Amino acid sequence: MGNKRTTYWKDTATPFYSFVFTLPLFLIYELGVFAITKNDLMVLRNGADVLMRQVLGSLGMFGMYGFSGAFLIGFMAAFMRQKKALASTAVRSEYLLRMLGESVLWGCILFLIMSYAPILLMSPVLGQLVQQGVLAIGAGLYEEFVFRVVLITGFAAVLGFIFQWERPARRTTAIVLAAALFSGFHFVGEFGDTPNMFLFMIRFIAGIFLGFLYSFRGFGIAAYTHTIYDLIVLFQVSTRS
Hints:
This protein is mainly alpha-helical. The protein has one domain (2-88, 96-240). Helix content is 78%, strand content 0%. The model is unreliable at 59-64 and 118-127 (pLDDT under 50).
């Protein structure tokens, strides 16, 4: 029994299971945005997604869809590399179900932590429930990819190269730096909130929580946790209004 538990915690934190686990989120988000509107894709997409697509915007229409392709290519590369280290590449359905249950638990924990502050982490922009639900899925997927996978990994590598810190120190510092950027990003752009230190600290706490969760449980669990939390907030806001 102990070996089975160890295998679950180890295997489900790998890019292999993260890719398989988050693929439904990716498909739901992309198809959901496309179904809602074909003319205003850049307006509907969540902030991190738009940021990356604008970076690719110089490539024309490819810029709008390039991040989706880059996202899939990146995870496929991680998948191909990781599968060599796994004893088996068979997807265990019971692991995926347990990961979903674990994500729900982490999402509820994050919601309880943040419930002591005003519910402002996901401020509605377009006001329609379906659209906000799609955006919640996109936020969990793309914001975790940008602010956890890319930034934490990048910051940790730079800190290790410059200061020669041990892994725990550079990883923790990277989590804090990524959380600060994650929080500050919500104040940028046309739909960003008015700069406010209290709001910054609320999102900063959430960023640290998600950063450590990503470090210990992998991208898949972090993405679902973020999405489930946003959906809980969306449900609470919609039932109150």
